[in-house]
Amino acid sequence: MSHSYPYPPLINTSDTQASNDVDMGNAAAGAPASDIDSKTGETPEDLFLWLEELDSERAMDWVMKQNARTESELFDDGFNTTRESILTVLDATDKIPMVTKRGEHYYNFWRDSQNPKGLWRRTSWESYLQEDPEWEILLDIDALAKAEGLDWVFSGAQMLRPTPGEPYTRALLKLSPDGGDQVRIREFDLSAGGFVPGGFDMPVAKTNVSWAGPDTLFVATDVGEGSLTRSSYARTVRRLQRGTPLDAAPEIFAIDESHVLAYVSHDPTPGFERDVAHDVIDFYNSKTFLLRDNQWVYIEVPTDVGVSLHRGWVLFSPQTPWTREGVTYVPGSLVLADLEEFLAGTATLHEIFVPTPSTSLQSIDFTANYILLNVLQDVSSQIVICDPARDFELRAMDIGSPLHSFGISAVDDQDPECGDDFWLTSTGFLTPTTLARGSVAATATPQAIKSTPARFDAADFEVSQHFARSDDGTLVPYFQVSERGLRLDGQNPVLMNGYGGFQASLTPSYLGAMGPGWLTRRSTDGRRGTYVVANIRGGGEYGPNWHRAALRENRHRAYEDFAAIARDLVSRRVTSREHLAATGRSNGGLLMGNMITGYPELFGAISCGVPLLDMRRYTRLAAGHSWIAEYGDPDVPSDWEFVQTFSPYHRLDDALDEGVEYPASLIWSATSDDRVGPVQARKMAAKMMDMGVPEVRYHESLDGGHAGASDNGATATMLATSYEFLWRHVAR
């Protein structure tokens, strides 16, 4: 079970598909212009600090020159062919329109070549079952952007739940001006199909809202001095009545500015209506409160025990061993109790899931009468159903193949006619996604509703799983997608992908864009591409312990794991250094930075996207302060002792006189990224160029936020740029 905090983590794990994961705004421009070295007490010279001036003329002039250089070298006919083949996949009109049920309607957000910014739309169940459903267009984002002169990016909708039996009529829409985390929130009338005149409308900011009633919102946003945490998220929450100015709304909840964020939500479930507040201390510690008699009542558990509420239950998931009344619950377990009994101190705790060394709980959801558990067994999915009416009996669902991913979620637990229905998605690296619907209470096999057609010929490819032994003896799994009968002579072009952070798991998913972008291409001697996914520590593949093994001072384990997989590929003669490429984004970009500086002898080329790289200053840039629990605080001398060992920007200094042969490196980011920001990527590239490192290229998109792209065309360009750079260097 994971927290469901309404802010984006430092995650952008996939290099094969787009996600609107993050605006640095001018956060960097206000950062201190110097650092005090915690070891020497001196002020070191940072020759490239001026690149932290986010949109200054000289910084953007440097960016434009680097973009022009990179594009002049890469954007040729071969690049265009790759880009168009990827764009064809992304814009395909026969992909699955995934839906969310609200009342009698099924809602979907859709992009294609005719609607690059997208359509927010809905249909009926009967129509959705058809091959070509009839959609009611609620909002055309392209038309809105044209009418308002702003390149809006749709970032989601939050519905106002009506009284039982009544239709949904209102929603709050989140619109980003550049694909970043900052959004404008506007009230939308579902019946009239337009924005509500004089309705709720909040300016662009990192805002979280929750309906508290038809005319009331809980709002966590920037309301001036003292309202934000050091992580750039809201520190206070206000109750906003319709017609009241935000600055006049009463503050109802606040946290310390050193914490990450505060938010309050209203649970409208009939019979269980309540207001819930969260003090998110850091990524792995939080406090949860219930409003009782106008007082916030703390649900007392250790702060690293995740808390969720569902109807009359409270659920707990500890990150570290949790002992209560003589019973110890292991990290990654799922524990349930009656909420009122727990608050009264009389609860019996029920242990629903206990992980083993090879299993972990990835997510949970609820139908009207059951709990749905998504479990990983050596990084392959298992679906388990829990029946509370039968003393929390567990039964595994027969879902088929290993080395695949399955997802399960409730269709609508509030609908009396289908409250126990679920969605089941299935996918694999070579298996297009299928969407099915079933009922927990039924014995029939879930009915397949929609399937994605194959985007490339996978008949000659196969998927296998392997384990490499890391430096400390730990076996680390990885997936390999390659041609059948692969020649094991060390000459195959291989692309490794990794992440290894924030308890995020890399699981099998269909390689629709990577098929034409990497797998089906041929090198000069006719070889096709091989793709490898590394399930290194720091991720969540084996639960909290797998994650915590690479936290803070143990960060090196994630990098040792990735390097061990690279060596294993070489020892198995799948590839060799000159034919091995690697890619990673966000925290995975930090991983790539440490491959460049710590293991340059293993890789021929690296693509380092939207990365952290200057770990001395990361807490002062964008949302960096919120990741101290993951990496450590460089302003604390004892922390800087270990943080500097995985700061790629500083590790370059150690190699100045060592004659290191660095891999060809593409470093890329987005100007509008307000989660990590582009400045660390800029500085790393500039420093490597200044050192005379050959084959270093930089590219920066102007919009797209932390995802690096705001529409399918931009996504295709981003992916093709990365694939083309890597292919040219390792597929010789």
Automatic annotation (TrEMBL):
Domain of life: Bacteria
Biased composition range(s): Polar residues: 11-20
Alphabetized UniProt keyword annotations: Hydrolase, Protease, Serine protease
GO terms (BP aspect): proteolysis
Enzyme Commission number(s) from the entry: 3.4.21.26
Residue ranges of domain Peptidase S9A N-terminal in the record: 36-265
Top-level EC class as recorded in UniProt: hydrolase
Annotated Gene Ontology cellular component terms: cytosol
Peptidase S9 prolyl oligopeptidase catalytic domain ranges (all copies): 530-730
Region feature Disordered, mapped onto this chain: 1-41
GO molecular function: oligopeptidase activity; serine-type endopeptidase activity
Protein name from the UniProt record: Prolyl endopeptidase
Species: Paeniglutamicibacter gangotriensis Lz1y
